[in-house]
Amino acid sequence: MKAAAFDYHRADSAAQAVQLLGAAGGMAKVCGGSQSLGPMLNLRLAQTEALVDVSRIEDLKAFTLQPDVLRVGAAVTHARIEDGELPDVTLGLLPHVASGIAYRAVRNRGTLGGSLAHADPAADWVTTMSLLDAGIVIVGVDGERTVPAHAFFLGPFTTALQDDDVIVAVEVPRFGAGARWAYRKLCRKPGEFADAIAAGWIDPARGIARVALGALDGMPQVVTGDAAVQALGQPAAVQQLLDNAGIDDEDARDLHAVLLGRMLKDLAP
Amino acid sequence: MTTITLHVNGRPLQAQAEPRTHLADHLREQHGLTGTHIGCEHGVCGACTIELDGAPARSCITYAVACEGREVRTIEGFDGDEVMAQLREAFSAEHALQCGYCTPGMLVTARDIVLRLPDADEARIRLELSGNLCRCTGYRGIVLAIQRVLAERRGGPSNAKVEAAHAA
């Protein structure tokens, strides 16, 4: 199908993008590589009066290594992460996740910020950034603010972004020495949105133990702390997590439970 | 309507575009480049895969206005390309197409595999091809064609795996 008519504006800076969004009075959408929003517009699941293209803003394509985090520009593509262009602060997790997103032709244009703004519960970055509780850096009318992932994702396709907010970067925590991660995704065909995702991050040097269950009806379920993560070895804790996730369907529960078990096996030292 | 200039197959081409018009429609309707095929129009089938700034991209979920000033290469722009010449030969030899609808996108993806992943094995080729749907061949001929080109580029016309697959 073809998208319904919209106006198109190209922003040269985040501040200009905020202005353009403000001028549209809440009726414009931010667009990066258009790999999530494009299909939605073509299928007319989404309609907008205007697109504000942020994909050419140089700052949004850059990344900077800071003491505790890697600040990744929102318009950095999945392919650049896959190809190892960024400093490897997650001991390979980010490139691994990036390489499994959709298809190479999509990864060449799709952006990290775009995926998070779209907030599809089955998207890889949504679960990954929830696992890491990454900081989502947003520029709006009142300047810049950073919202942790757990407060950013409010529900399926729903985020803390206001009408005239633009994601400019994602702050990914730097893993400590000896940190471990595991990432399992179940798809009926490679490149599809996942039926289930299970991810884990154990970082003794930083005192972090986290597990995230994704591709749910709602946003990812995150389990934190050594004891709680350990307990996931017991069926009762897994059933409780599936209850918390609101999964009723028996097959879907089994799917997530099996994937979680496999991920925990990968995660073991 | 906006006037946009794209560098298509090495030439600057100017034309009017509505913001909602995707690159595939723009190339086909404004520039007559009908080698770019349109299938699903939501980024899944891969028939519309072209090269944008030297990397494969879906022209159905990329709006033409967003490509202002960019280098676009469609299947028509690969006439003199060495790898594409090898792939054309191999696609023919291995019966890697029947109706041909997926072929332009398949070739662009295949060329990317050959150049980006020179050591790709069969499993990796199949994984990389997962974004291009073919309803005629069952993929076997396409995988063999790509393996053939990879083997040729590694320096030998014979490829034990390809030969063995034929023998089987």
Short description:
Chain A is of the alpha+beta class.
Chart the SSEs and their pairings:
The complex is a heterodimer of chains A (269) and B (168).
Chain A: E1 7-10, H1 14-23, E2 28-31, H2 37-42, E3 50-53, E4 63-65, E5 69-73, H3 78-82, H4 93-99, H5 104-107, H6 112-118, H7 124-132, E6 135-140, E7 143-148, H8 149-152, E8 153-155, E9 158-159, E10 166-173, E11 180-186, E12 196-203, E13 208-214, E14 221-224, H9 226-231, H10 235-244, H11 250-267
Parallel strand pairs in A: 1-3, 2-3
Antiparallel strand pairs in A: 4-5, 5-10, 6-7, 6-10, 8-9, 11-12, 12-13, 13-14
Chain B: E1 2-8, E2 11-17, H1 23-31, E3 49-52, E4 55-58, E5 71-73, H2 82-93, H3 103-116, H4 122-128, H5 140-153, H6 160-167
Helix pairs in contact in B: 2-3, 2-5, 3-5
Highest-level CATH class of the largest domain in chain A: Alpha Beta
Largest interface: A-B, 32 and 32 residues
The number of domains of chain A: 3
Name the helicity range of chain B. 25-40%
CATH class of the largest domain in chain B: Mainly Alpha
Order of helices and strands of chain A: EHEHEEEHHHHHEEHEEEEEEEHHH
Instruction: Please state roughly what percent of the residues of chain B sit in beta strands, choosing from under 5%, 5-15%, 15-25%, 25-35%, 35-45% or over 45%.
Output: 5-15%
Could you give a short account of the major beta sheet of chain A? 5 strands, antiparallel
As a percent range, the share of helical residues of chain A equals 25-40%
Structural class designation of chain B: alpha+beta
Say what the CATH topology of the largest domain in chain B is. Answer: DNA polymerase, domain 1
Mean pLDDT of chain A: 97
**Biggest beta-sheet profile of chain B:** 5 strands, mixed
Report the C-alpha radius of gyration of chain B, rounded.
Answer: 17 Å
Q: Judging from the principal axes of the Cα atoms, what is the shape of chain A?
A: globular
- Roughly how many Å apart are the termini of chain A? 49 Å
Q: SS-based structural class of chain A?
A: alpha+beta
